[in-house]
Amino acid sequence: MPTILVFGDSNSHGTVALSRLGQLDRHPPEARWPSVMARALDADVVTEGHPGRTTVHDDPIDGAHKNGLAALPALLESHRPLDLVIVMLGTNDCKARFGLRGWDIAAAIGRLALTVQGSTAGPGGAAPDVLLVAPVPLEEAGVLAEMFQGGPVRSRAIAPALRDEAARLGCGFFDAGRVCTVDPVDGVHLTAEAQRALGLAMAEAVRDRLPR
After folding, report:
1. 149: closest CA among 158, 140, 160?
2. Is residue 211, in this structure, part of any structural domain at all?
3. How many domains does the chain have?
């Protein structure tokens, strides 16, 4: 059975759209997109979805532990051997506090891909395959509107830049915005229906990348 690591943020964690700040509700385990993908593929999927996780940045408000680049090497060692690592980050980099462009965010995701490619976390001590996923574009809505001010423009610029970055690095690429949209309640998180749609689409996207 192939083993896949999903390295993501709150939308991989299964966070429900927030109606108030500090809310911690999650979709049921079986409804989260990595679980939907796992059932469709009959694969062992390890989900490392950390709410608030950035690509490579210490968060000056939420803490340095949100930095994905700092967390990734330990996770690769903890869960090896891995056939595939799916990186779906970038949403939190769209927060106004970081002031990044879509190109910057794609380049940071590429830095994570290089970390995977330089690891010994795959079968036989080789590097795992990598699939880079452009996150679902944001909307300014609800209690997160001010935090993600300007986020819709930033988020929509990620996919084309990340497609080019994936091609440069020899990684797979998938645009999650092609198959689902954010919940209008907070403009960031996914409904249960969107989680399911993403899980099924991801299963098709990774099927041919897995060992037979």
Report:
1. 140
2. no
3. 1
pLDDT digits (tens, 9 = 90+) for 65-93: 999 999 999 999 999 999 999 999 999 99
pTM, 2 dp? 0.97
**Mean pLDDT in order along the chain per 10 residues (212 residues):** 96 97 95 98 96 98 97 98 98 97 97 98 97 98 97 97 98 98 98 98 94 75
Residue 212 lies in a domain: no
Q: Which residues contact 110 (CB under 8 A, 6 or more apart)?
A: 132, 162, 165, 166, 168, 169
Element containing residue 130 per DSSP (H, E): strand 129-134
- 190 falls within a domain: yes
Q: Are 148 and 96 in contact (CB under 8 A)?
A: yes
On whether the CB atoms of residues 142 and 151 are closer than 8 A, the answer is: no
Residue 44 lies in a domain: yes
Lookup: tokens for 113: 């891909």
Backbone conformation region of residue 167, classed left if phi is above 0, alpha if psi is from -120 to 50, else beta: alpha
Quick one: pLDDT at residue 108?
98
Q: Which domain holds residue 95?
A: 3-18+25-206
